[in-house]
Amino acid sequence: MATKRSATAAYVCSECGWTTAKWVGRCGECQQWNTVVEASAPAGGSRRVAPLVPTSSARPITSIDTSETPRRASGVGEFDRVLGGGIVPGAAILLSGEPGVGKSTLLLEVAAQSAREGRRVLYVSAEESPAQVRLRAERTSALHDELYLASETDLARVLGHIDEISPALVIVDSVQTVSSSLSDGAAGMPGQVREVASTLIRVAKERDLPVILVGHVTKDGQVAGPRVLEHLVDVVCHFEGDRQTSLRFLRALKNRFGAADEVGCFQMAGDGIVGVPDPSALFLSHGEPEPGTCVAIALEGRRALPVEVQALTIPTSATNPRRVVNGMDASRVAMVLAVLERRAGIRTSELDVYVSTVGGVRFTEPAADLAIAIAVAGSVRNHAIARNVAAVGELSLAGEVRPVTQGAQRRAEAARLGYTRVVDDRSGKLTSALNDIRALHLVSRDAGFPEF
User: Which of 128, 163, 211, 339 is deepest in the core (most CB within 10 A)?
Assistant: First the structure.
């Protein structure tokens, strides 16, 4: 005879702690399979927790010291910028990114610069041998006597290295390749990742020792392992870039010590990785203005960047004209083409249209709509826009130019870079924006846009 299940029985995910009233094969929180197990309540009802004397008394929030948390500059300016000004003692930082994007190269540069500042650094490479790391360090000029290397995959031995060396910074590359004897399963399993990360974070807090953990990512770009890993750490950064270009971006997705929308810009070179404090020139072409180009002001985090949008239109007799888009949202480009034809009288239905950005940067926000429209109109009319013109605005289906986020910051950055005229939502309509360019003699060729 089957026994009746207790009314107090519940089911809990062994990876993230998610609970449910009935058994399911897949956790509803971390999406892991076969991790939901039965967890019955203790016999005799719930237990009561006895109160203890607090270690420190609660204080009014107005009496809390508001002095800034001490930070240590790593020596890599763009890395410090993303962290909010430097590395905070005791901080746990998680750095994720696609394979081969340059995570190890970036952290090796951070380790070398910190060692040059007089701080001892322990670099734990669980994926490469010390000789392999040494070869990369020679190529990138990241050699220093205060930079210690260890190749370990066992958590206990990593802790032993920390006790022996007493470093001021620890880098573990990567957290998915280190395992602990206190947890079952192979390295990289959710239970192992959680145990390793929680132990290293506890050591970081107890010793005021900053720890940087490298995390692998899955096919959809998420950090591999349990979601609780991103909740445990203080800072989550994502290193991204296109393998076809040398440009790399470091984004802060979570930061308990600063802004969570900051972006750092790097450039990969043959001798290592270099920070780019002012990447404005990377996304602009050089030479005389050409028909079909317009500069837009993009916003990467809190950093405004000029991005040149290029358009090329070619007559075609095909039933379905081609629409080729690179670095931009193809659906938004299609919408802009429809608005141009319906509201501004610029026919594109009989043209092959190619739209791209310069420098391989992705510009997918609505603020690019007006620049796309001006670039396509310039290509159709064979008119080149002057170099001192920039465009920022979102287009509605009614042909209105709508304001965008951080419009004042974009205009200020445009003025700093020498763009004396910014075409934006103050024009009201797309036709007005095109006629503003003509009326102000901002077109570099003799003819202007026709009246609308």
Answer: 211
CA 122 to CA 244: how far, in whole Å? 32
Tens digit of each residue's pLDDT, the chain (452 residues): 444 444 445 788 877 778 888 889 888 887 888 888 877 545 445 568 788 888 778 889 888 776 666 889 999 999 999 998 899 999 999 999 998 899 999 999 999 999 999 999 999 999 899 999 999 999 999 999 999 999 999 999 999 999 999 999 999 998 999 999 988 888 888 888 989 999 999 999 999 999 999 998 887 777 877 777 898 999 999 998 877 778 888 999 999 988 887 888 898 887 889 998 878 777 777 777 888 999 999 987 778 889 999 999 999 988 899 999 999 999 999 999 999 999 999 999 999 999 999 877 888 899 999 999 999 999 998 888 888 889 999 999 999 999 999 888 898 888 888 888 899 998 899 998 888 776 544 444 444 444 43
Instruction: Report the C-alpha gap between 383 and 447 in whole angstroms.
Output: 7
Q: Are residues 291 and 329 in the same domain?
A: yes
Are 28 and 148 found together in one domain? no
Task: Please enumerate, by residue number, every residue annotated as part of a binding site for ATP.
Answer: 97-104
214 and 149 in a common domain:
yes
With respect to residue 50, please indicate whether it lies within any of the assigned structural domains.
no
This prediction has a pTM of 0.76
For the sheet with 235-241, list strands across it: 147-150, 121-125, 169-173, 211-215, 92-97, 235-241, 247-255, 263-269, 272-275
**Cα 187 from Cα 172, distance rounded (Å):** 14
The SS3 assignment for 300 reads: strand
Count of C-beta atoms within a 10 Å radius of residue 177: 20
Shared-domain flag, residues 173 and 245: yes
Beta strands in 65-205 (DSSP E): 92-97, 121-125, 147-150, 169-173
Q: Which residues are annotated as a binding site?
A: 97-104
Is the same domain home to 139 and 238?
A: yes
What distance in Å separates the CA atoms of residue 202 and residue 184, rounded to the nearest whole number? Answer: 20
- What three-state secondary structure class fits 275? strand
> How many independent structural domains does the chain possess?
3
